[in-house]
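Re: [ENG-882] Designed sequences occasionally contain unexpected residues at chain ends

Forwarding the minimal case from QA. C-alpha cells:
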C-alpha cells in the first residue's frame, strides 16, 4: 500500500484544500484538486508500468529512451470519480477507459451499493486501474471490480483513492487480496453513516451538487 501524504509533497496542499470546509465550497477548485491528485498519483503509478527502450529521432540525432509499453485501463465510479479519472487520463493519455455507475443507497453501516450502468473495453490480461476518490466501506470498489470481470480478467489491478478509511482498506484487502492500493491519505475511521472521519464530506455532492 502506497500513501502519498506519508511524504511531504505538493499533494498534501491539494488534499488540504479538498478537505477544507471553506475552500471546498468552490466546486471548480474541488474538481480541479481531485484532478491534480489524480495527475500526481498517475506519476507515482507510472513507475510500476512495464517499460522498454525505444529509439527517438530528435532534429539533431537519434537517441534511446525508456518508455511505457502499456498503459492501464482506467475505470472509474460515477459521479465523484470523474474529475479524478480526468487527472489520470491527463498523464496516461493513451489509456482506454471504463465507467461504472454505483451509488450508496442508505448511508448506514449496512449500506447497500447499487451497481447500474457499466461500460468497458476488454480487460482480458490488461492492467486495470480503478479510481474513485473515496474508499469508505470499500463496498463500491469491491462490487465494481467483481461486476467488471464480465469484460475479462485483468492480469494486474490497482486501486487509487484520494482518501480512505482503515475499514475500507481492510475490506479491499480481504475481498481483493492481490490488488495494489494507492492512497492520498489513510484517515482515522468511519462514522455511523459510513462517512470517512476526518475525510472531506460527500465528494460527489461537492463536485457536482447535492443529490436529491
Ligand atoms: O467505499 P464506499 O462505502 O462504497 O463509498 C465510496 C463511494 O461513495 C462515493 O460515491 P456516492 O455513493 O456518494 O455517489 P456519488 O459520487 O454519485 O455522490 C464515492 O465516490 C464512492 O464511489
Ligand atoms: O466520506 C465519504 C464516504 C463515501 N463517500 C463520500 O463522498 N464521502
Amino acid at each position: 500500500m502506497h500513501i502519498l501524504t506519508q511524504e511531504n509533497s505538493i499533494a498534501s496542499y491539494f488534499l488540504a484544500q479538498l478537505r477544507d470546509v471553506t475552500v471546498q465550497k468552490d466546486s471548480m477548485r474541488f474538481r480541479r484538486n481531485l484532478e491534480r491528485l489524480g495527475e500526481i498519483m498517475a506519476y507515482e503509478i507510472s513507475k510500476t508500468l512495464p517499460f522498454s527502450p525505444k529509439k527517438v529521432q530528435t532534429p539533431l540525432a537519434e537517441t534511446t529512451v525508456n518508455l511505457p509499453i502499456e498503459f492501464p485501463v482506467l475505470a472509474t465510479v460515477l459521479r465523484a470519480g470523474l474529475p479524478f479519472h480526468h487527472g489520470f487520463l491527463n498523464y496516461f493519455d493513451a489509456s482506454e477507459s471504463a465507467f461504472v455507475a454505483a451509488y450508496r443507497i442508505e448511508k448506514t453501516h449496512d449500506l447497500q451499493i447499487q451497481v447500474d450502468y457499466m461500460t468497458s473495453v476488454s480487460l482480458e490480461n490488461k492492467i486495470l486501474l480503478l479510481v474513485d476518490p473515496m474508499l469508505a466501506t470499500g463496498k463500491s470498489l469491491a462490487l465494481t471490480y467483481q461486476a467488471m470481470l464480465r469484460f475479462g480478467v485483468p492480469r494486474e489491478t490497482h486501486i487509487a483513492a484520494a482518501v480512505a478509511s482503515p475499514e475500507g482498506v481492510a475490506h479491499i484487502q480481504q475481498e481483493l487480496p492481490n490488488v495494489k492500493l494507492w492512497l492520498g491519505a489513510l484517515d482515522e475511521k468511519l462514522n455511523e453513516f459510513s462517512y470517512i472521519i476526518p475525510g472531506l464530506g460527500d465528494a460527489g455532492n461537492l463536485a457536482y451538487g447535492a443529490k436529491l
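QA comment: On inspection the terminal residues look reasonable. The chain has one domain: 2-208. Proposing we downgrade this to a documentation issue.
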